[in-house]
Amino acid sequence: MRTIEKNKKKQESINLPFSIKWVVKILAVAVGFYVWGVDFIWVVLGVVFCWNILKGIASCLLSLIALIGFFYFLFTHIF
Questions:
Q1: Sequential DSSP letters for the chain
Q2: How high is the pLDDT of residue 12?
Q3: Distance (Å, rounded) from C-alpha 65 to C-alpha 72?
Q4: By the 8 A CB rule, do 72 and 78 touch?
Q5: pLDDT in tens, 36-63
Q6: Residue 49: per-residue pLDDT
């Protein structure tokens, strides 16, 4: 009995934030469409479909910036 009650509480708490997230996303897209027009929808679709590629590019750029910072520190403080 106790496990059934715990599972019900977990399911209710999991469903509520999920629906709030979707409402926030839909409102953000609606406001973006209202402010910037149809081009905003294309940008959102591009980000959604290319998210993994964009994450990889951002990761590479962050690594490059860290490497440049390391070499800058190395050359200014050691040499």
A1: -HHHHHHHHHHHHHHHHHHHHHHHHHHHHHHHHHHH-HHHHHHHHHHHHTHHHHHHHHHHHHHHHHHHHHHHHHHHHT-
A2: 53
A3: 10
A4: no
A5: 888 888 888 888 899 999 999 999 999 9
A6: 92
The residues spanned by each domain of the chain are 1-36, 37-79
Question: Rounded distance, CA 15 to CA 78, Å?
Answer: 55
**Residue 38 in contact with residue 50, Cβ under 8 Å?**
no
Unique residue bearing structure tokens 């409102």? 27
pTM: 0.49
Residue type, 68: I
**Which of 3-7, 33-37, 58-62 shows the lowest per-residue confidence on average (mean pLDDT)?**
3-7
